[in-house]
Q: What sequence folds into this?
């Protein structure tokens, strides 16, 4: 079969099993768009801004585990995609981004809409390719998908010069079934001796804790993690990225750890004698001040990326491997071992944890006349029966969603953790809804974040992706304001917008339903009404207590044992903002 | 400590910038870097001299290994190895000085590879410290130009860095 480069690209994506491609046209990709027009297997989602394309593809990838695919034009199309590429990179999300490029002979001449995409994206991709020969195009695409989805996943950019896709140059096409790359061989199974050592250490622990992360979600190892945790009877905590890998409502789960983690999770980390980190990367939001991190613990670390191990915290027993087979091996050894978890020590340990739990660090003022954001999330949980896919933007609302919506299943909590990209939530929700049209999809956002990709409301209408936008409208960049309150004597420098759009009208202008909620008692009925409108996107503009802060909090330079807790359950009436 | 990292990588355009970019993005220091194709034209060999604590060197080798184009690498500082650098020095010469420069080059096992009425070019290879010593031994005012390749190295014994 002889095809043009444009046809090869489209056909390769179809042969790769790609369902959706999120994109935006322009000069350098016109041949490609013409090839897209002449087929109907591959569905193209036309976004309103290339950043939206990357986040939508990313949301699709996070929810399904399949790679998200993006198509943008050269120059401004390519640069607009960079934020979304970096977002995926930081959270290890598999994506393939196809960017148009000016024709090969003019590369380097400052041609119209030329930008060095390979150079610009180099630090925020797993790998990138410039296609210089149309006969290598299909193989390059195969390689890109292979690299993006294996080992530690990540985004891969394929930069395609316009002349490579020219309709008049046809070459034989065959999509490779398999590729191997001699310089890329991700490890899978863990070192048996290391796993044995880890099991011995685990079984001799008195104050153990399991610290699980996004790698368990990425590695599809929820079942194994749950089995291991149950077999050991140990407490388990999770990073922001790992939420849902272990059921959030299970009694062994003691909440998220880190900066806005629970008191019990952070205290247990601090006091523990053995930590097993599973697919987590000791991020600074998790460790707090490194010198104060877990002073009494021996640490086991399972990670597929050797570079994640001992990067910030030195570990005692490193295990390089894919979390699923490693946990399987580990479970096997635990079952066969003559040693058993130390029952007595464990009883004392759980007793201690119970005392920390009794602090009730997530309690908030339930009598307030103002809408408490935590209350909204709790209601969202109940109305969706804990079953929704929840995407979020970045800020206080993100933390409240993570704290008050216990996820029981992986891939249901979809947020930008590593880069912390405002604007992520709405397009990501569209990607999720396309993947799971029958599931409830909610986007928890703030009035500042939502404005960063608000234009995608139009995409949501065109492709009939009915999502529910939960706008926790505190009329502040709350997260910024909170830091200014704590660290800058309440000098609220530019964390407030004098003008905020009327979101109800805005939603209506985009063809959706808008609702404004001002009182606590309206929250539940509004949510119920919104989720009952199965085929409509609903924008719930919820006026929340603007003074509310996220607690608990580990402030900069502090350790896990030194958390700032909510002092009193005050309302705005007794806590005015300066 | 000083480490010499020897890298076998795909001879692809852009491979060099991936390595250089990694070092600047992560704030690692590069003292020198040399690169050339090997006898297998699809591969190039890069030698990189860097300094850092054990932890940093460990991260550097892990991060380099993570680059898709990197096939293999070794830290030469971890085993017996031979290190060489090539240098060419252009020296202003007056009639009286010529003998002295020639004997100095001899002592350091250098060669005079170009002569003009007013200059010599001395070529020399060796460990970097030897080259430093030669430069230090010459009157700085007479040195017109020093060109150094940066060190490159190879491990001793039967093992080698190959596919
Ligand atoms: C406003 C804000 C506040 C935040 N506060 C917190 C907080 O309080 N607590 C918190 O935890 N985070 C918080 N974060 C998120 C934080 O910045 C990091 O994104 C997060 O902690 C990283 O999670 P992780 O360690 O699970 O790593 P991830 O980024 O999910 O990385 C996954 C790790 O698993 C490995 N891996 C991948 N696949 C596999 C596999 N198949 N097998 C084995 N290993 C694998 C990877 O190599 C990597 O090391 C916050 C973010 C924002 C924006
Ligand atoms: C693109 C981008 N710019 C800036 C920031 C820094 N930032 C983090 S949270 C935040 C405020 C978010 O405000 P809002 O969306 O209203 O959420 P809230 O904290 O009020 O819930 C800002 C500006 C960011 N994370 N992303
Ligand atoms: Mg806000």
A:
């Amino acid at each position: 079969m002889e095809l043009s480069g444009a046809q090869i690209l489209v056909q390769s994506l179809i042969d790769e099993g790609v369902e959706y491609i999120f994109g935006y046209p322009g000069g350098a990709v016109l041949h490609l768009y013409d090839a897209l027009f002449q087929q109907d297997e591959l569905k193209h989602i036309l976004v309103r801004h290339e950043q939206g394309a990357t986040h939508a593809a990313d949301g699709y990838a996070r929810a399904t585990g399949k790679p998200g695919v993006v198509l943008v034009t050269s120059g401004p199309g390519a640069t607009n995609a960079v934020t979304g590429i970096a977002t995926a990179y930081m959270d290890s999300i598999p994506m393939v981004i196809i960017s148009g490029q000016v024709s090969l002979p003019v590369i380097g001449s400052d041609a119209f809409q030329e930008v060095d995409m390979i150079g610009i994206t180099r630090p925020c991709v797993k790998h990138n390719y410039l296609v210089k020969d149309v006969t290598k195009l299909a193989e390059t695409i195969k390689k890109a998908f292979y690299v993006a989805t294996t080992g530690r996943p990540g985004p891969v950019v394929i930069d395609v010069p316009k002349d490579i896709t020219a309709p008049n140059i046809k070459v034989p096409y065959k999509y490779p079934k398999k590729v191997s790359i001699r310089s890329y061989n991700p490890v899978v199974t863990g070192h048996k001796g290391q796993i044995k050592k880890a099991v011995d250490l685990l079984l001799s622990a008195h104050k153990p804790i399991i610290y699980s992360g996004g790698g368990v979600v990425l590695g599809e190892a929820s079942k194994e993690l749950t089995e291991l945790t149950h077999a050991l009877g140990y407490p388990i905590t999770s990073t922001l990225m790992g939420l849902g890998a272990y059921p959030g409502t299970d009694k062994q789960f003691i909440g998220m750890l880190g900066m806005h983690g629970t008191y019990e999770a952070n205290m247990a980390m601090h006091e523990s004698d053995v930590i097993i980190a599973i697919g987590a990367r000791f991020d600074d939001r998790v460790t707090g001040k490194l010198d104060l991190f877990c002073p009494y613990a021996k640490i086991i670390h399972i990670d597929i990326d050797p570079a994640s191990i001992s990067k910030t915290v030195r570990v005692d027993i490193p295990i390089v491997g894919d979390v699923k087979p490693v946990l399987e091996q580990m479970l096997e050894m635990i079952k066969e071992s003559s040693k058993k978890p130390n029952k007595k020590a464990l009883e004392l340990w759980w007793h201690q944890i119970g005392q920390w739990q009794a602090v009730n660090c997530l309690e908030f003022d339930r009598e307030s006349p103002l809408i408490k954001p935590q209350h909204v999330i709790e209601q969202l949980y109940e109305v969706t029966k804990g079953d929704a896919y929840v995407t979020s933007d970045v800020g206080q609302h993100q933390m409240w969603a993570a704290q008050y919506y216990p996820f029981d299943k992986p891939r249901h909590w979809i947020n930008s953790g590593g880069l912390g990209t405002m604007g992520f939530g709405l397009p990501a929700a569209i990607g999720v809804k396309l993947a799971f049209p029958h599931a409830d999809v909610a986007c928890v956002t703030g009035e500042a974040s939502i404005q960063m990709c608000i234009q995608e409301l139009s995409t949501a209408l065109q492709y009939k992706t009915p999502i529910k936008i939960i706008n926790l409208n505190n009329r502040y960049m709350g997260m910024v304001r909170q830091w200014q309150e704590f660290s800058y004597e309440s000098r609220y420098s530019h964390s407030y917008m004098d003008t905020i759009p009327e979101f109800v009208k805005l939603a209506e202008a985009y063809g959706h339903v808008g609702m404004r909620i001002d009182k606590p008692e309206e929250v539940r009925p509004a949510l119920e009404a919104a989720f009952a409108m199965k085929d409509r996107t609903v924008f719930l503009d919820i006026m929340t207590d603007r003074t509310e802060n996220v607690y608990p909090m580990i402030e900069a330079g502090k350790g896990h044992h030194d958390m700032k807790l909510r002092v009193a359950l005050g309302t705005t009436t007794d806590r005015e903002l300066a | 400590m000083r480490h010499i990292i020897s890298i076998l990588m795909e001879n692809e355009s852009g491979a060099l910038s991936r390595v250089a970019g990694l070092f600047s993005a992560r704030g690692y220091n590069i003292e020198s870097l040399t690169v050339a194709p090997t006898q297998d034209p699809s591969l190039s060999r890069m030698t990189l001299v860097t300094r850092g604590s054990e932890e940093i060197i460990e991260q550097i080798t892990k991060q380099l290994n993570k680059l898709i184009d990197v096939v293999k690498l070794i830290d030469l500082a971890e085993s017996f190895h031979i290190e060489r650098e090539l240098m060419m020095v252009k020296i202003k010469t007056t009639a009286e000085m010529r003998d002295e420069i020639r004997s100095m080059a001899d002592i350091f096992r250098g060669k005079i590879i170009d002569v003009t009425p007013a200059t010599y070019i001395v070529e020399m290879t060796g460990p970097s410290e030897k080259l430093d010593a030669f430069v230090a031994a010459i009157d700085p005012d007479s040195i017109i130009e020093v060109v150094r390749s940066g060190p490159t190295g190879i491990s001793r014994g039967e093992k080698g860095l190959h596919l």
Observations:
- The pocket of flavin-adenine dinucleotide (ligand 1) is lined by residues A 91-92, 152, 213-215, 218-219, 239-242, 256-261, 279-281, 283, 285-286, 302-305, 308, 322-323, 394, 398-399, 417-418, 420, 479 (CB under 6 Å).
